[in-house]
Write a structure and sequence with these properties.
With 143 residues, this protein is of the alpha/beta class. It has one domain (9-137): 3-Layer(aba) Sandwich (Rossmann fold), CATH 3.40.50.2300. The protein is 47% helix and 17% strand. It is built from five helices and five strands. It has helices at 17-29, 40-50, 66-74, 94-102, 114-138, and strands at 9-13, 33-37, 54-58, 84-88, 105-109. Strands 2-1-3-4-5 form a five-stranded parallel beta sheet, sandwiched between helices. Strand 1 (9-13), helix 1 (17-29) and strand 2 form a beta-alpha-beta unit. The longest helix has 25 residues, at 114-138. The relative contact order is 0.16.
């Protein structure tokens, strides 16, 4: 099991190229392996290919928004429990926030400073490690 500084892979998904690249650069500087996608479709392919330890997801994207991406992500058995942080610059209704929580995502409002990004990322990666450790302690499913 790796620690956050053992190059945990983080997928950053945002249609704002400069913001996504800035987040990726900060994560790389902190010792993570950062991948970037600018659409939900590309992000799903990247997630399937690289199995990231955590995902930073912009809510407002063209074609498929953050909730749509999460439904697709959670439908994939290998990605179902990947920790996700949804970031948004818009005001979300209580219903949308509840839906995102039901889909296993945390929500933060933009702007998200780099220190907050790194703190949130460490927590996401740790949550993922804790869940995997808990799953493996339970042993294989009984048939």
């Amino acid at each position: 099991m790796s620690s956050p500084n053992d190059a945990a892979t983080i997928l950053v998904i945002d249609d704002h190229v400069a913001l996504a690249q800035g987040f990726a650069q900060a994560l790389t500087g902190a010792g993570y392996k950062a991948l970037v996608a600018h659409t939900a479709d590309i992000a799903l392919r990247e997630a399937q290919l690289h199995q990231p330890e955590a995902i930073i997801l912009d809510f407002q994207m063209p074609f498929i928004n953050g909730a749509g991406f999460l439904y697709r992500l959670r439908a994939n058995e290998d990605l179902r429990r990947t920790p996700v942080l949804v970031i948004t610059g818009q005001t979300l209704t209580d219903e949308v926030r509840a839906e995102l929580r039901e889909l296993g995502a945390q929500v933060r409002t933009k702007p998200l400073g780099l220190a907050d990004l790194l703190t949130e990322t460490r927590a996401l990666v740790q949550r993922g490690h804790d869940e995997r450790a808990s799953d493996s302690a339970k042993g294989p499913p009984r048939i």
